[in-house]
């Protein structure tokens, strides 16, 4: 029997591991299954190159719970260890066997899928166990050994009678970790961390029904048999070539990733690059609402098919965090617990690659089937618009596929839109005015007036539209966006001709005084305008600049001087050529004037959705009374 002290640089590393090295105790199972996977893949590699003269076969990793004795067993049929190797790899903490293996076979083992990097994964076992045992038999013709350690630097190493190749880790579970002896808990952890490990993982058995052969008698009942319960899919879709997968394969994998999501994704993007870094994965565009809340924790990060985290910030560009799927790369640097990303040039390269790949896919979808792309636009626009604002490289490419829909459900790219509206929506100063609405129903009357003049009106209803149009205006000379209710249409797109007012300047001033006596000054600025006599007598508009700054402030950034807290300000545009203007002016007394102004103002507010609560109740009552 060998006894000795584990070679560590502190008196007792185990409390340190338990408290600080790993943030979450449950990852012990991930680490130990990863080690078992490494041991199996190493053997596969050595048999492939003829260095291990053994039969590789169809090895599995098995997890067993012995509740009575408070033990968990992790058993593999991999490369195993000799006594010397146990001394070297287990007793010298942080001297990683996987690292040494990769160095020794770096040319031939590059694609072997070996996971380990730090050599500390095994010691995560002491987070949940007060004693850990290793029974291991090397593929080499050497006797098996049994290593035991109780969480102190002391260990024992004795011969063992094991005859089959591989390693068994036995965890004697501590009193504060007894939850890990429950089947449901282990199943939950295996599903979370090891669902796509490259070696089959057995956890218990399940009953399988054997189909009745064709032509059998009617009274023949199907038989059942107990089979290994393999909890993982060793060959997930992202490890395959895109040419080997159908649309249905991609959808099935999406359901495998998100079993509680009942809607199919809109489309997918398969990532597959091996230079200058190694990265595979599949990203899915799910149906999205116009909600600016970034739905993080949807994309899963793997390293050689081992789940690492569902926080992929930094690797996946922020605007794509609303997508779902998998990214797998052995080149993403992780700290010792594999739980957090470290700052690294590779990460930025990967982020740029993903941005480019998504851009190329969107352009391809747009070019191949524009009609289908237009149908999906409302479900993907929030991602693309956010990408234009947050990712310069994406913005550069966005002109090829980002769409601007009209209220009539026509779709234009920006260049198409400029060409379509230039002949009619260019104002007297040579500026091209893009009219838009944010709510088709609430701004219906304004849209109607604009369309009557032959103008196109876009429907831009994303919460970040104010930020987006600000950027588009800055990058496109003589291009101006105006919401269709920002002013009277003739003021939004000013032409050379001017309407002549029926009222004299003196009459206009007298009318303005009468109206201002009724209209609340803190919310409305009264403007007297000579408009077409058929236009509405009173029109409420909200100045584009103030409204846009308030919206930008509400969604973060752009709102200067706390504009988000300013009260809403409106213009009340009075059409001096309307019959109502003359009627108010010539009313017999101030009370009659005030009554007309109040009713006209309420009608204008009603058309803007601004008449609510008590004011709306009073208006309805007053209107019914005028009918009796």
Automatic annotation (TrEMBL):
It holds the Pfam family HSP90. The keyword Oxidoreductase does not apply. Residues 486-513 form a coiled coil. Keywords: ATP-binding, Chaperone, Coiled coil, Nucleotide-binding. Signal peptide: none annotated. PANTHER family: HEAT SHOCK PROTEIN 90 FAMILY MEMBER. Belongs to the heat shock protein 90 family. This is Molecular chaperone HtpG. It comes from Flavobacterium luminosum.
């Amino acid at each position: 029997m060998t006894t000795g002290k584990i070679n560590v640089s502190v008196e007792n590393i185990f409390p340190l591991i338990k408290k600080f090295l790993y943030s979450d105790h449950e990852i012990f199972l991930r680490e130990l299954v990863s080690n078992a996977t490494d041991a199996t893949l190493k053997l596969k590699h050595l048999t492939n190159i003829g260095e291990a003269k053994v039969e590789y076969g169809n090895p599995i990793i098995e997890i067993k719970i012995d509740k009575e004795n408070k033990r968990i067993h992790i058993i593999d049929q991999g490369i195993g260890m000799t006594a010397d190797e146990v001394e070297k790899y287990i007793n010298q903490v942080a001297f990683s066997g996987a690292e040494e293996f990769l160095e020794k076979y770096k040319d031939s083992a590059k694609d072997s899928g070996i996971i380990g990097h730090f050599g500390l994964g095994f010691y995560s076992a002491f987070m949940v166990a007060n004693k850990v045992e290793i029974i291991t038999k090397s593929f080499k013709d050497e006797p098996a050994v049994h290593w035991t350690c109780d969480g102190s630097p002391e260990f024992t190493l004795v011969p063992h009678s094991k005859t089959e190749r591989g390693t068994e880790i036995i965890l004697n579970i501590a009193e504060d970790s007894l939850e890990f002896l429950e089947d449901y808990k282990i199943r939950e952890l295996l599903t979370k961390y090891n669902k796509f490990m490259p070696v089959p993982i057995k956890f218990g058995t399940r009953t399988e029904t054997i189909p009745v052969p064709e032509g059998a008698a009617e009274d023949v009942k199907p038989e059942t048999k107990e089979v290994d319960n393999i909890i993982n899919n060793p060959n997930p879709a992202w490890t395959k070539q895109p040419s080997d997968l159908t649309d249905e394969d991609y959808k099935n994998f999406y359901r495998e990733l998100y079993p509680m999501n009942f809607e199919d994704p809109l489309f997918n993007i398969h990532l597959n690059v091996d230079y200058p870094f190694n990265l595979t994965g599949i990203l899915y565009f799910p149906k999205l609402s116009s909600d600016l809340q970034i739905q993080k924790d949807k994309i899963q990060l793997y390293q050689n098919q081992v789940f690492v985290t569902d926080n992929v910030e930094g690797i996946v560009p922020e605007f794509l965090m609303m997508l779902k799927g998998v990214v797998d790369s052995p080149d993403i640097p992780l700290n010792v617990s594999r739980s957090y990303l470290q700052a690294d040039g590779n990460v930025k390269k990967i982020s740029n690659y993903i941005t480019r790949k998504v851009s190329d896919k969107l352009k391809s979808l747009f070019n191949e089937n524009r009609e289908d792309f237009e149908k999906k636009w409302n479900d993907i626009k929030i991602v693309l618009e956010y990408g234009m604002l947050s990712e310069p490289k994406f913005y550069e490419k966005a002109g090829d596929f980002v769409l601007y829909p009209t209220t009539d459900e026509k779709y234009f790219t920006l260049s198409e839109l400029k060409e379509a509206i230039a002949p009619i929506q260019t104002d007297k100063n040579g500026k091209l005015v893009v009219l838009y609405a944010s709510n088709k129903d609430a701004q219906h009357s304004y849209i109607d007036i604009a369309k009557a003049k032959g103008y196109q009106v876009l429907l831009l209803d994303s919460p970040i539209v104010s930020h987006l149009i600000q950027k588009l205006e800055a990058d496109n000379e003589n291009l101006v966006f105006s919401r269709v209710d920002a002013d009277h249409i003739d003021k939004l797109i000013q032409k050379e001709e001017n309407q002549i007012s029926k009222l004299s300047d003196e009459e206009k001033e007298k009318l303005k005084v009468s109206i201002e006596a009724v209209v609340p000054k803190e919310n409305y600025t009264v403007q007297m305008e000579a408009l077409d006599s058929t236009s509405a007598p009173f029109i409420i508009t909200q100045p584009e600049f103030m409204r846009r700054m308030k919206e930008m402030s509400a969604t973060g950034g752009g709102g200067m001087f706390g504009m988000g807290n300013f009260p809403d300000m409106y213009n009340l545009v009075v059409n001096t050529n309307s019959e109502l203007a003359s009627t108010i002016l010539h009313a017999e007394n101030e009370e009659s004037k005030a009554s007309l102004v109040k009713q006209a103002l309420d009608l204008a507010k009603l058309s803007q959705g601004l008449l609510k609560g008590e004011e709306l109740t009073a208006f309805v009552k007053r209107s019914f009374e005028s009918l009796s």
